[in-house]
Write a structure and sequence with these properties.
Elements: H1 18-26, H2 30-37, H3 39-65, H4 69-76, H5 80-88, H6 95-104
Helix pairs in contact: 2-3, 4-5
Length: about 130
């Protein structure tokens, strides 16, 4: 049976599975529950998402260019330990450091802002 095909006629009732799918979609995931539990938690989540995205981006550039941590450290005039800290996500990177690393690898980074999803009554609004 092809994707989206139904049993019976076009106007037939949904299958026995459909109510369970509907119920499951009404529940919040752990991620959504944390995200909407407080403004502080939402901000922490956004910070961690950005840290992970940046460290993955930098690591990906290193791999694509086949440059070692030692070589990157040499290009930056820093230690290999410093490069390790950058790539671990444990160091709070400045925009200047990110730009320096990208430049040392032959890249220029662009930033893209995406509007956060909002749901009526969600914790995405600031609370007093």
């Amino acid at each position: 049976m092809s994707r989206g095909a139904k049993h019976g006629s076009e106007g037939s009732a949904p299958s026995a599975i459909a109510p369970n799918l509907t119920m499951a979609t009404n529940r919040k995931t752990t991620y959504e529950a944390f995200e909407t539990s407080s403004v502080a938690n939402r901000r922490t989540l956004r910070q961690e998402e950005l840290i992970v995205a940046m460290t993955e981006t930098l690591s990906g550039m290193l791999e694509r260019e086949k440059i070692t941590k030692t070589e990157l450290a040499r290009r930056l005039g820093k230690t290999k330990a410093f490069v390790g800290e950058i790539l671990s996500g444990e160091t709070n990177l400045t925009l200047r450091t990110i730009a320096d690393v990208a430049d040392a690898l032959g890249y220029r980074l662009k930033l893209d802002a995406v509007k956060a999803r909002t749901k009526k009554g969600s914790a995405l609004r600031e609370s007093a």
